[in-house]
Amino acid sequence: MRIAARAATYVAAALAAAACTPALQPATLVPAPVPPKDSIELSIFLIGDAGSSAYDGEPVLQELALQSDSLHPVRQFVVFLGDNVYPRGVPPLGHPNRDDAERRLAAQVLAIRRGGAQGILIPGNHDWDRQGRDGWNSILRQDTLVRKFGGGDVRLAPSGGCPGPDVLDLGTRVRLIAMDSEWWVHNDVKPYGDAAPCPTRTYDEVADSLAGALRDKGTRHAIVLTHHPMRSGGIHGGSFTLMDHLFPLRNYKRWLWVPLPLIGSLYPFARKMGISNQDVTGKKYQDMRRAFERAFGRYPPLVIASGHDHDLQVIRGGRPRVTNAAYQLVSGAGILGHASVVRPIEGSLFHREAAGFMRLDVTRDGRVRLSVTTVVGEAGQPVGAEVYSLWITDLGGA
């Protein structure tokens, strides 16, 4: 009884603190003018961390499919930004979670193919066995399934557990550069060194090849795709709530409402100090960020698009303290009810704790309009709304 009473007290305190938190965004945001449909050469959808779709249908995927249906199939491309199968990627045949893993993966591939589009899924840390020892094998199993479900229109990129870059030129205006950022920070077995069956096999080779892909883009807009963002105002960037301090065990099991005041604060503090390679402050994460940013500093991409944090963020870059890319986009909210806390950081133009995805419309004359869609509702009745938009090439983007 005492524990229950204390828990209730702490919950009440946390809710009271949350009620005092100011709104993340102003009530109104001026939308960017929508280009005529016939002026759009290509639309690119960016959605991440969608690997736990509801059994009766995932509203976020359904809204994405509705938007996709309204577009010409040849003029659209869908990118899933990692964590395609929660909680630990694709397990072996015979594992009790195998059927559900296949269902979750198939739902994303179907969302791409339903409108006749093509697309890719890039790997995230959960796809690598939640950065565990069976990670590489899990990626190989996912690779096989995506090819099976994708029918030639959808694939895993980079494939085979390789780090990338995997370069895709779309239309006349866009170069996508897909990276497996978990390969860089992964602590267990991965294809590394002379025996690795990959085009790039060391950290230096990956960084040099990334720079080369950016250098050789010509007049195309370069869009780099990674699961891990270079900067973020979300949890992996160091933003925690009072609930994280009071109930830290919920980060391991959502039902563990065990109050640990004072002691619980050690968890967020340790993560801010770099105890996890899944956080921006982690040593391997920092090594990756420095290597990527050196390439971006020489040949800045227009966008680096990522997931990992379960929120929606638009961050203006163009400066080393943020990112040398013109923009960092975080679109890691591909599941309804999965969003997490996000706060503004240097360069933040938009941030929202909500489910949804992003879209880039590229016109024939090379301009790029970014839009952010949030989704509410239920299976079969998604309600999507454009809540932010910006012509990103009109602010000096690369």
List keywords for this structure.
alpha/beta, 27% helix, seven-stranded mixed beta sheet, 9 helices, 398 residues, Purple Acid Phosphatase, chain A, domain 2
Amino- and carboxy-terminal Cα gap: 60 Å
Which class do the helix and strand fractions yield?
A: alpha/beta
CATH homologous superfamily name?
Metallo-dependent phosphatases
DSSP summary: helix tally: 9
The CATH topology comes to Purple Acid Phosphatase, chain A, domain 2
CATH architect. name: 4-Layer Sandwich
What fraction strand?
15-25%
Structure description:
There is one protein chain. This protein is of the alpha/beta class and 398 residues long. The chain has one domain: Metallo-dependent phosphatases (Purple Acid Phosphatase, chain A, domain 2, 4-Layer Sandwich). It contains nine helices and 14 strands. β2, α3 and β3 form a beta-alpha-beta unit. The longest helix is centred in the N-terminal third of the chain and has 18 residues.
Chain-wise SSE layout:
Layout: H1 2-19, E1 40-47, H2 59-69, E2 76-80, H3 98-113, E3 118-121, H4 135-150, E4 154-156, E5 166-170, E6 174-178, H5 181-185, H6 203-215, E7 221-225, H7 242-246, H8 266-272, H9 283-298, E8 303-306, E9 312-316, E10 327-331, E11 348-352, E12 356-363, E13 368-378, E14 381-391
Parallel strand pairs: 1-2, 2-3, 3-4, 6-7, 7-8, 8-10
Antiparallel strand pairs: 1-12, 5-6, 9-10, 9-11, 12-13, 13-14
